[in-house]
C-alpha cells in the first residue's frame, strides 16, 4: 500500500510520518501531483493558519488535484479544516470537498482559546474509520477554529458546546485532533484509516 | 470535557536528563528517550524538555534528540531553552516538537513572540515566565534563571508581562513561581490565581509540587489548565497513575489511560 503525506508546509508532518512508521507504514512526503494521484491513501497534515495553508496548496497547484482525488483522503487538524468549504480564519475559501464551515471558538472567562489538551470523543454515527472507538476515548486537540456539528460529523467532542472531532464526506475524512499525538486512541484511528 | 494536564518536565543538558534544586546543582537523572517513554507509559499528558545545554560560541545546540523523541513518543511535547529566533524554532518544530517555549529571549526582544506566532500559529508558542515576589510584595519577572550567576531581576511586573505576551501571540503560558520551586511545599496558589485572572490562553502551573493535594489545589483553587513538575516524578515520590486516580476521585476531569485498554 502506498501512502503519501501532502507537503503543505505544516510543522506536524514529521510527527504524522513517525506515527505511520510506528504502524509499519513508510509514507512518502510529496507535493508532486502524479504521486498524490497514484497513492492508495493521501494524508493532508497541517498546523498553522488557513490562509497560508490554502496559499501554499495553490502555489503547488494542488487545489484541483486534491479536489479530484477518489481514494481515501485524511486531513489532520488544519488539514481537516482545509477540506471544508470556508474558514472564518482570515475569511478563507477552502477546498470545499466536505460541506462544512470552519468557525472561531468564542473565548469566555471559562473557555480558553486555543482549545488545547486532551478531550473526549463521542461517536455519533457508524463508519469503518471508527472501528473499536469507544465513547469517552481521549484525543489531543490544539486549535482555535472548529467545525460545528452537521451531517458530515462522525465523532463529536465538547468544548463550551459540541463540535466536530471527526468528519467525512465520500472519500474525504478529517480529524480535528492530532492522532499522531493521541497515544493509543490516535494510533487506532490512523490504523483504521489505513485499512479503509 | 477538557482534561486537566499532568506535565513532567525533563531538564536536558548535553543530551541527558538532569535535575537541580532551585535551578542549581544539576545531577544526571537518565536518558531522554527512556524517561520520555516511561512517562508516556505512566500516563503523562504532555512532556516539556527544558534544554539547558549552553550554546557553544556562535553555534546552535545539537538537538538531534528532539527527532529521536518524536519518533517514539505519541503524546505532545514542548521544547524550551535556547530558542532565540524563528530559525531555531523551525528546527525544533520540524524535528517533531509540538510546541516551543521561550523565556529570556522573549524578555530581551518581545517581538520574538509575534514572529513565532506569525510563522507557526499561536498554538505552537508557549511563553515561560519565571517570577518571584519582591520585598514590596509585587511579583516581578526574572531573566536568565538557568544560570544562578546570571539571573537578573527585571522591573517588569509578572502580570503585565503575561498580558503583553498574550497580546503578542502566546498560545499558552507556563508560570514558574520561583519562591516555591524545588521545595515541594505546594504551588503558589495566590500568584497562580492572580495570573489566571488575566490569562485567556491555557495556563500551566510550575514550581512547588510535593504531594498529590498540591496538584488538586492548583486545579481547583487556581483553575490552571495543567500542572508541571519534575523532581517529584523523577524521584518516584509521586507516581503519575496514582496521582491521576486521586485527582479523578477529587472530581477533577482527568484522562485515564485505562479507558483505552481494549486493543
TrEMBL record, chain A:
Residues 4-194 form the Glutamine amidotransferase domain. Its EC number is 4.3.2.10, 3.5.1.2. The keyword ATP-binding does not apply. It is found in: Cytoplasm. It catalyses: L-glutamine + H2O = L-glutamate + NH4(+); 5-[(5-phospho-1-deoxy-D-ribulos-1-ylimino)methylamino]-1-(5-phospho-beta-D-ribosyl)imidazole-4-carboxamide + L-glutamine = D-erythro-1-(imidazol-4-yl)glycerol 3-phosphate + 5-amino-1-(5-phospho-beta-D-ribosyl)imidazole-4-carboxamide + L-glutamate + H(+). Heterodimer of HisH and HisF. The active site is at residues 77, 178, 180. HAMAP family: HisH (MF_00278). The keyword Cell inner membrane does not apply. It comes from Dyella acidisoli. Pathway: Amino-acid biosynthesis; L-histidine biosynthesis; L-histidine from 5-phospho-alpha-D-ribose 1-diphosphate: step 5/9. The gene is hisH. This is Imidazole glycerol phosphate synthase subunit HisH. IGPS catalyzes the conversion of PRFAR and glutamine to IGP, AICAR and glutamate. The HisH subunit catalyzes the hydrolysis of glutamine to glutamate and ammonia as part of the synthesis of IGP and AICAR. The resulting ammonia molecule is channeled to the active site of HisF. Keywords: Amino-acid biosynthesis, Cytoplasm, Glutamine amidotransferase, Histidine biosynthesis, Hydrolase, Lyase.
Automatic annotation (TrEMBL), chain B:
The lineage of its organism: Bacteria, Pseudomonadati, Pseudomonadota, Gammaproteobacteria, Lysobacterales. The active site is at residues 11, 130. Belongs to the HisA/HisF family. It comes from the Bacteria. It comes from Dyella acidisoli. This is Imidazole glycerol phosphate synthase subunit HisF. Pathway: Amino-acid biosynthesis; L-histidine biosynthesis; L-histidine from 5-phospho-alpha-D-ribose 1-diphosphate: step 5/9. Its main location: cytoplasm. Heterodimer of HisH and HisF. It is found in: Cytoplasm.
Amino acid at each position: 500500500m502506498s501512502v503519501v503525506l501532502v507537503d503543505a508546509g505544516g510543522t506536524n508532518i514529521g510527527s504524522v510520518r513517525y506515527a505511520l512508521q510506528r504502524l509499519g507504514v513508510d509514507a512518502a512526503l510529496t507535493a508532486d501531483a502524479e504521486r498524490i494521484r497514484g497513492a492508495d491513501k493521501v494524508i493532508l497534515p497541517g498546523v498553522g493558519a488557513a490562509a497560508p495553508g490554502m496559499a501554499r496548496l495553490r502555489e503547488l497547484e494542488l487545489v484541483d488535484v486534491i479536489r479530484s482525488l477518489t481514494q481515501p483522503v485524511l486531513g489532520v487538524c488544519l488539514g481537516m479544516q482545509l477540506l471544508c468549504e470556508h474558514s472564518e480564519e482570515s475569511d478563507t475559501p477552502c477546498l470545499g470537498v466536505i460541506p462544512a464551515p470552519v468557525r472561531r471558538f468564542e473565548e469566555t472567562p471559562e473557555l480558553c482559546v486555543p482549545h488545547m489538551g486532551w478531550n473526549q470523543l463521542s461517536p455519533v454515527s457508524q463508519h469503518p474509520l471508527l472501528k473499536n472507538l469507544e465513547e469517552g476515548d481521549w484525543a489531543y486537540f490544539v486549535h482555535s477554529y472548529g467545525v460545528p456539528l452537521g451531517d458530515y460529523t462522525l465523532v463529536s467532542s465538547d468544548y463550551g458546546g459540541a463540535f466536530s472531532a471527526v468528519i467525512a464526506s465520500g472519500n474525504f475524512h478529517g480529524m480535528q485532533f492530532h492522532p499522531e499525538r493521541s497515544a493509543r486512541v490516535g494510533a487506532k484511528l490512523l490504523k483504521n484509516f489505513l485499512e479503509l | 470535557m477538557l482534561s486537566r494536564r499532568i506535565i513532567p518536565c525533563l531538564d536536558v543538558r548535553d543530551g541527558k536528563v538532569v535535575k537541580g534544586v532551585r535551578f542549581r546543582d544539576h545531577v544526571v537523572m537518565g536518558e531522554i528517550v527512556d524517561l520520555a517513554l516511561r512517562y508516556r507509559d505512566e500516563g503523562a499528558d504532555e512532556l516539556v524538555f527544558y534544554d539547558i545545554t549552553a550554546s557553544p560560541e556562535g553555534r546552535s545546540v545539537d538537538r538531534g534528540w528532539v527527532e529521536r523523541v518524536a519518533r517514539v513518543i505519541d503524546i505532545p511535547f514542548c521544547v524550551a531553552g535556547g530558542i532565540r529566533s524563528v530559525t531555531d524554532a523551525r528546527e525544533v518544530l520540524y524535528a517533531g516538537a509540538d510546541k516551543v517555549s521561550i523565556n529570556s529571549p522573549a524578555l530581551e526582544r518581545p517581538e520574538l513572540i509575534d514572529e513565532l506566532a506569525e510563522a507557526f500559529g499561536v498554538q505552537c508558542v508557549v511563553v515561560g515566565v519565571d517570577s518571584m515576589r519582591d520585598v514590596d510584595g509585587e511579583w516581578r519577572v526574572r531573566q536568565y534563571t538557568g544560570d544562578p550567576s546570571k539571573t537578573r531581576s527585571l522591573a517588569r511586573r509578572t502580570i503585565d508581562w503575561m498580558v503583553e505576551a498574550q497580546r503578542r501571540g502566546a498560545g499558552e503560558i507556563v508560570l514558574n513561581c520561583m519562591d516555591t520551586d524545588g521545595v515541594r511545599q505546594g504551588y503558589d496558589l495566590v500568584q497562580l490565581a492572580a495570573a489566571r485572572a488575566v490569562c485567556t490562553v491555557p495556563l500551566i502551573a510550575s514550581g512547588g509540587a510535593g504531594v498529590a493535594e498540591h496538584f488538586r489545589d492548583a486545579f481547583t483553587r487556581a483553575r490552571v489548565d495543567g500542572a508541571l513538575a519534575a523532581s517529584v516524578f523523577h524521584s518516584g515520590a509521586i507516581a503519575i497513575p496514582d496521582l491521576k486516580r486521586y485527582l479523578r476521585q477529587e472530581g477533577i476531569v482527568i484522562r485515564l489511560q485505562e479507558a483505552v485498554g481494549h486493543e
